[in-house]
Amino acid sequence: MNFVETYGRDPEGVWAAPGRVNLIGEHTDYNDGFVMPLALPHTTRVAAARRDDGLLRVRSASVATSEPVEIPLSRLAAGGEALADAGWARYPAGVAWALHADGAQGGGADLYFESTVPTGAGLSSSAALEVSTGLALNDLYGLGLTPDRLAALCRRAENDFVGVPCGIMDQMASACCTAGHALYLDTRDLSRRQVPFDLAAEGLRLLVVDTRVQHALGDGAYAQRRAGCEEAALLLGVTALRDVPYAELAEAERRVDDPELRRLLRHVVTENERVARVLRLLDAGTPRDVGPVLTEGHASLRDDFAVSCAELDLVVEAANSAGALGARMTGGGFGGSAVVLVMEAAVEKVSDAVRAAFADAGHETPRLFDAVPAEGARRVA
Ligand code: ADP
Ligand code: MG
Predict the structure, then answer these.
(1) Are 83 and 156 in contact (CB under 8 A)?
(2) Which residue(s) pair with 192 in the sheet?
(3) Three-class HEC string of 216-255
(4) How far does the centroid of ligand 1 lie from the alpha carbon of residue 113, in Å?
(5) How far is CA 97 from CA 11, 48, 101, 140, 173, in A?
(6) 158 and 201 both lie in a single domain
(7) Are 152 and 168 spatial neighbours (Cβ–Cβ below 8 Å)?
(8) What is the distance between the alpha carbons of residues 363 and 361, in angstroms, rounded to a whole number?
(9) Which residue, of 194, 219, 237, is where some domain finishes?
(10) Range list of β-strands (E), 23-106
């Protein structure tokens, strides 16, 4: 099944938006902090054509339903509640809603999605879905949105229409990354820089290990960590934890009595410092030295922020014991994926060690692949 078979006509174009992995800067984006994601070669592609009858029709090759989902744009005004039972279709519908709410003069469309981004693996299939939708509508209707505006509207769709309280990192990564680079992003003002990250030239590989688990704990825990960070910021009299300088961490910790809040504070402040350190290492042309910073970041997510799980800890432990330069969980946590920085020559040994450790522990076989920094969202046909 494809666009032509589904809708009985040709698409006007095809757009692609990638998934992402985050190299460093985890749980910092909703604290106005710093992140450094890179786009994956895995993309969500959407073939699309305008409609002039106010209907949005969506179908995904990843979803085994026989009919396209049909959504009258007039139903979107009521917000996500009105489409509570529309499942995955809420993502593209939410993007149409956010564009309209922003004053864009768009209209209906037929959309057909195909994706190679694993879903629910912490690799941002949701952002790839949103950004591909947004870019297609932007181009079809000549809306003239910049990549950051598009990312912000896609985030709004996920936050306010789908009801997932994510930060801005995923959508910005999908919309703005460039091949061969990591994206250094200040999530407060969206200022950013493309940082050269040519792994092959340095004899390095960045492996992604998808643990293929997603613990149910995740959703509530994310909201709870977010609320905790806000509470800590309030206690310290700052807008967001990003405003606590690393040099003043010890002093700030003394002012937060609750040990749990103190640990959240510590993670966010040290994680922002780790992003700064990784940036310096990449700028200095010494990407190998990034490894230990990743492992340090993992320890902080495991011990202070408490969002890791047995499978993610096992990836890091097994990879590092087998000679990786460093490793950490990436994404929200409680399952999903880890990244492992490793010298080319050690890839096989490290990969085998991770698989063997999973087999020994009785975990499902993980999925391993290379993260080659790829380009962000674009029109492909
Ligand atoms: P992640 O973004 O880490 O992959 P999320 O839970 O944020 O995980 O988003 C996954 C959800 O996004 C899926 O459950 C599904 O509803 C939707 N989704 C993502 N990609 C697609 C796709 N290609 N087709 C249909 N739905 C998709
Ligand atoms: Mg997501």
Answers:
(1) no
(2) 185
(3) CCHHHHHHHHHHHHHHHHHHHCCCCHHHCCHHHHHHHHHC
(4) 12
(5) 22, 17, 6, 16, 21
(6) no
(7) yes
(8) 6
(9) 194
(10) 34-35, 37-51, 55-60, 69-72
Cα gap 98→299, rounded to integer Å: 38
Residue 64 identity (one-letter amino acid): A
Q: What distance in Å separates the CA atoms of residue 18 and residue 371, rounded to the nearest whole number? A: 12
Task: Name the residue range of residue 201's domain.
Answer: 197-370
Helix (H, G, I), strand (E, B) or coil at 62: coil
Residues 273 and 299 in one domain: yes
59/275 Cα distance (integer angstroms): 38
Distance 167 CA to ligand 2 centre (A): 10
Which of 123, 117, 131, 113 shows the shortest CA–CA distance to 42?
117
Give me the tens of pLDDT residue by residue for the chain, a chain 381 residues long. 799 999 999 999 999 999 999 999 999 999 999 999 999 999 999 999 999 999 999 999 999 877 899 999 999 988 888 888 889 999 999 999 999 999 998 999 999 999 999 998 999 999 999 999 999 999 999 999 999 999 999 999 999 999 998 999 999 999 999 999 999 999 999 999 999 999 999 999 999 999 999 988 777 899 999 999 999 999 999 999 999 999 999 999 999 999 999 999 999 999 999 999 999 999 999 999 999 999 999 999 999 999 999 999 999 999 999 999 999 999 999 999 999 999 999 999 999 999 999 999 999 999 999 999 999 999 999
Which of 44, 112, 129 maximizes ligand 1 atoms within 8 Å of its Cβ, making it the mutation to test the pocket? 129
Is 66 in the same domain as 184? yes
Active site residues: 170
The CA radius of gyration of the chain, in Å to the nearest whole number, is 21
CA contacts within 13 A on the Cβ side of 146 = 3
Q: Which of 69, 113, 126 to mutate to test the pocket of ligand 1 (most atoms within 8 A of CB)?
A: 126
**What does DSSP assign to residue 180?**
T
For ligand 1, whether the C-beta of 282 sits within 6 Å is no
Residue 120 and residue 248 in one domain: no
Q: What pairs with residue 340 in β-bridges?
A: 207, 327
